[in-house]
């Protein structure tokens, strides 16, 4: 029997310590840590919750959480100084079977087999995880796909004004005001009496920023309910 695993070993040269973490195809996270040149101490294996509670985790793939934990440990250990990749992230097929069905004891032979068989080819962790999922026939995240933010919905009044401009109609302040403005699909015009001036796009952006700042600056704080205790700023 064989077992597919994905994992890595990181080292901290300052403290001469190392950590190893891997996930098996069954959905179990294995970890080990210790000093350079010594037999590492193994942590208790962490099987995926979806393996032993189908009802609570219905629809969740057994590899989802272990892989997320593998990423989390990688980021945490790197921040703590384990920046040397003693064994870069890799996908390995091991000629052994994992202790079934839910291993409670550490599987030292599994960890040693991974260290002995893993290639020393540098690659990002996400690349190794993607290859691991592809090997097992699971969906993978497409490569080289740029993230595009979703367009935020506009307030109803803005949407109505957009429709007005799209139909070729201007949006103007009340004519009775001595100082006013007119917005068309071609630009923004400020008027004083019968005279006026067209603003370029940069000027409109600056005006919008200034008006937004003024609205935030003059915004009234929420009224305190009767009997509500004062906060730190409201204390004498």
Note the main attributes of this structure.
single chain; 236 residues; alpha+beta; 6 helices; 10 strands; 25% strand; disordered C terminus
Largest sheet: 6 strands, antiparallel
Helix count equals: 6
What is the N-to-C succession of helices and strands?
EEEEEHHEHHHEEEEH
Radius of gyration: 31 Å
Uncertain spans: 231-236
Structural class computed from helices and strand pairing: alpha+beta
Percent of residues in beta strands: 15-25%
Task: Tell me, rounded to a whole number, the average pLDDT.
Answer: 84
In whole angstroms, how far apart are the ends? 74 Å
Provide the helix percentage: 25-40%
Shape: elongated
Number of strand segments = 10
